[in-house]
Specification:
about 450 residues, mainly alpha, globular
Length: about 450
Amino acid sequence: MADTQEKHYLLIIAVLTSFAGPVMLSAVTIALPAMGKELSMNAVELSWIAQSFSLAMAVFVLPFGRLGDIWGRKKIFTLGLSIAVVSTLLSAFATSFLMLISLRVLQGIGMSMLYSTSVAMLISSYLPAERGRVLGINVAAVYSGISLGPVIGGILTQNFGWRSIFFLFAALQLPALVLLLARVRTEWREAQGEKFDIAGALLFAAMLFCLMYGFSLLPAATGIGMIVIGIIGLAAFVAWERKAASPMFNIQLLTKNRMFAFSNLAQMLFYLAIFSIAIILSLYLQYVKGFSPQNAGLIILAQPVVQAALSPVAGRLSDRVQPRLIVTAGVATALVGLLILFAATATANTALLFIIVSLVLLGAGLAFFAAPNTNAIMGSVERKYYGVGSALEMATRNVGMAFSMGILMLLFSLYMGTAQITPEYYAAFVNSIRMALLIYAGFCVCGIVASAARGKVVSRQE
């Protein structure tokens, strides 16, 4: 247990990193058209700017969570924060698509090291009676970053250029790194001495990469082949983890815990359905509707503001009402938002009000999904599995986000090929995003089914 002063510094560090990550992610979304213009990127390449970061996060969060338990969470956190700061500073000087993508992958790896260890360090440092308040502050930082990111990204892109976003992110992270090195002395190694499942980690990384990269290559035969390899890799990963003496992930948490399994499935499906909406609207509002980056960011702000306002209410409500009911209602609300957005993009002359209403509904759906679903996931496992539960909760979210971008990239490729988004391709662009919205709505329906099928949370005595 960290001393009183140290744990307060640790909370400040967690808040800074939890705020900065979402700020950069959503700010970069707003800056995509400006990046595409300067670096001559087509629609698929623009999608990879976001996809590469999300994919790296999804691939590495579970392995680094396990490494933190064995080697030390502070050690992994410090290394991840250092990688994030350096790769972000270098991103501001990117001169090509390949250079920028490579640095975005490094950013994703660094951030996976942060997010797989930060909550575990907080829980380990604070008394049980303090943890709800501390985690609430950390979640508030995340939502604040999501809320302010589009506005900050629009202002910076319009007035100082897209490279300034990466300078800002580094500036937000540097104080956290200084505090960590100067003030936090405690190390956490609850699984010290156990072996790291290298084979399992490699199988997981290779499987997920093959699935996602293969998805981006469809409908080419190479893409189909990689997806088949990814599916075989998934089967091999499950088989290996079942027999491994010290597995990276305990498969029985999915096979013998209905609440845990269906809550994570609902999470993956939901984020698959909603993650790409901000990117779709950033491109649509700037290219088709003609808004500036700053104004596009202000419009998209409607979703995270509603989410941030309603999330505390949803979290408190999930302590008294079965999360299954709240989460299912949240996914259904988001489904309505997606359908309204589908109708609103039918013509460029549709009133902006319809887009804003859809964003409000999506924000409300996210609010009544995120905290209650996390509550259901963590409430369904024993204390000794909190680290694994938290890592998988983040992994399923990032896998959903990565597949969401994969679907969007596939549709861009099918409808537009490698063409940049120019006026002659606006019709094809709109058709591709409307098809994406229909597909995402279908995944929302699947998420409703998964959420309703999870059963009731059974209170566990700690």
